[in-house]
Amino acid sequence: MYPTHFARRSILAVGLCAFLLSIAISAGLRAETFVLSNGGRVVGELLNPDETPRTKYVVRTMLGTVTLVENQVRLVRSKSEAEKWYERWVAKMPDTLEGNVTMAEACRERGLTAQRRIHLENILRFDPDHEPARLGLGYTSIDDKWVLTESWKRSQGLIRHLGEWRTRQEVEVIDAYDHREDREKEWWRRVKMWRTWVLKGRDRQAKGLQNIGLIDDPLASRAIVDTMEKEKNLEFKKILIQTLGRLQTGEAAGALISTSLEHPSEAVRDACHDELKKFARHMAAGAYVSKAGLQNSDNKVVNRAAVGLARMNDPQTIPELIDALTTKHKYILKPAGGQINPVFGANGGGGLNMSGKPKIVTRDVANPKVRDALLVMIGGVDFEYNKPLWKRWLVNEYTPRNVNLRRGE
């Protein structure tokens, strides 16, 4: 494939530029760029470099010597070491295929992008199908024809976005995500400000409460969750819990569930239950029967999970509640009548401590809140902590539809 008329003209223009530059360098012209206040540029050698204080710039250019007063020049750009190297060697380069290939590679190694492009274009004068030069100039071979990659990509409906070629739909998704991040950051700022109003700004307390009470954007969920989890003021924490219940996002549900299991305040846990019942009842029940709840190694968490299940009142969880009437937990048994302290972990064996050293023992612990949850869901019968009797009764008298009696076995 041979270059188009336009491409040939571009190659000739580039070659002419390289030729003129070679003449300038051969003539000993040390090129510096003088950026003018009006936006123009002058390239040449500064003939009065030592003038102090600076009042004017006397510059020898390819067309003659010009004088610029000090306030005409906004910036003087000197050549880098790589550019100085290029100026020394480009005039000596033979204008052949091999010469341009060698110089193009040397420019690539030194980061001289514009100069490298000149030599890649020159390579095509000698070999229009030179693959490395074509690729270096941004061409792609399509059906054995060289086409500019950018033009071909655009013809396929792609858009250059953030350094990558993407479909319009991908760009819309990325932009929407960026917009989402901006909105979330704005909610962080607002929630922090309104919290300050409520807790510290006496004259703005009512306005802060009003603003929080009007939040209905799901993108505020992350800011509310993080603020709620860190909040020490219990009354304000409950306000944030109510806000999460109003937003009804999955993120909100997860935070309410974990808080209902981990927070030491019963009032806070109850506030979480109130909101979970409104929009995430089954999700909460599933979490309460998992390792985060009834199967937890911490006996306190087991009982909190049972309270949550009683509030969710899901009969599907009765088999798990029966299994959790008593649970095994590890404790540290201190010698000489010392206190028994719990340690949490997997089940293990127990025994008496006769060695005079602390010993880990495993004990079955009755969970009264689990029993209470069963009584709330069933009522009328009470086999206390006797699991076999509860299971037998469940099979014979109270088998709710779709209950899996083998769960937990």
Largest sheet, strands/sense/barrel: 5 strands, antiparallel
Low-confidence stretches are 1-29, 344-353
Q: How many helices in DSSP terms?
A: 17
Name of the CATH class of the domain at 5-165: Mainly Beta
CATH level-3 fold name of the domain at 5-165 = SH3 type barrels
Oligomer: single chain
What percentage of residues falls in helices of 4 or more residues?
A: 40-55%
Strand order of the largest sheet: 4-3-2-1-5
How do the helices and strands follow one another from N- to C-terminus? HEEEEEHHHHEEHEEHHHHHHHHHEEEHH
| Global mean pLDDT | 84
- The percentage of residues in β strands lies in 15-25%
Work out the radius of gyration.
Answer: 39 Å
What is the general shape?
Answer: elongated
Number of strands: 12
Q: Which structural class should the secondary elements be placed in? A: alpha+beta
